Amino acid sequence: MIVLVKPTILLFALLALVGCSDSKPAAEARPSEPAVAAPVTPPPAQEPDSRKVLLVVGDSISAGYGLAPGLSYPDVMQHTLDSEKLAWHVVNQGVSGDTTAGGASRIALGLDMKPSVVLLELGGNDGLRGLPLTATKDNLEKMILAYKAAGAQVVLAGMSLPPNYGPDYVKSFEKLYKDLAAKHKVKLIPFLLADMITPDLRYFQQDGIHPTEDGAKLVAQTALKTLRPLLK
């Protein structure tokens, strides 16, 4: 998650609707007329998914914060790959508010999916909280090593920060992605949200942070430019 403009503070009201209904107890069955349970039809067996797994490990950008279900950029990637007849299953493990520490704590969950390709989209929340960059780098490195050891190809999605964090911190933050990609020989997307930046910021939601529906489509395109060679 990356802030590009000052977020607008939004207030939300929660309306609780409580419904009630009057119902009369059902008549008890007489001994001579025992109740008979309706037969239960088992659900149809689902065929195992034989497609390779593209795992997305990220924060609210990947989770699709503020969008209707099915409109996040990992969802758009799935639709695109389906239309191109590429047999890949995009598994979205984006968690809103997550940091690299959270992603590192979920490595086992990711490995359970047996991914062939992993897109790591984390670190934005670390930067926004001003966390030590050494910890961010260590957590990302831990994830890269774990997924590579399991045989997955890793793509690192870089992020940036607003200028008010200071030029030294911002440059060091951006550089850690480049250093990790070079050290571990993984593909790098320098800035995942780069194609969303326009003068009118129309691809961002009102908070100035998260992609709109059209913005998510641009993010999917940006990611697939780097991912596609690995998926073919």
Question: Could you characterize the architecture of this molecule?
Answer:
There is one protein chain. The chain has one domain (52-231): Rossmann fold (3-Layer(aba) Sandwich). The relative contact order is 0.17. α6 runs parallel beside α7. The chain is of the alpha/beta class and 232 residues long. It has helices at 60-63, 73-83, 100-105, 107-111, 124-128, 133-149, 167-184, 213-231; strands at 52-58, 88-94, 117-121, 153-157, 187-189. It has a five-stranded parallel sheet with strand order 2-1-3-4-5, sandwiched between helices. Mean pLDDT is 86; it is low at 1-34. 37% of the residues lie in helices and 12% in strands. It contains eight helices and five strands; from the N terminus they run βααβααβααβαβα. The longest helix is centred in the C-terminal third of the chain and has 19 residues, at 213-231.
SSE blueprint:
Blueprint: E1 52-58, H1 60-63, H2 73-83, E2 88-94, H3 100-105, H4 107-111, E3 117-121, H5 124-128, H6 133-149, E4 153-157, H7 167-184, E5 187-189, H8 213-231
Parallel strand pairs: 1-2, 1-3, 3-4, 4-5
Pick out its properties.
Rossmann fold, globular, 5-stranded parallel β-sheet, disordered N terminus
Report a brief summary of the structure:
This protein has 232 residues and is an alpha/beta fold. It is built from 8 helices and 5 strands, in the order βααβααβααβαβα. Strands 2-1-3-4-5 form a 5-stranded parallel sheet, with helices on both faces.
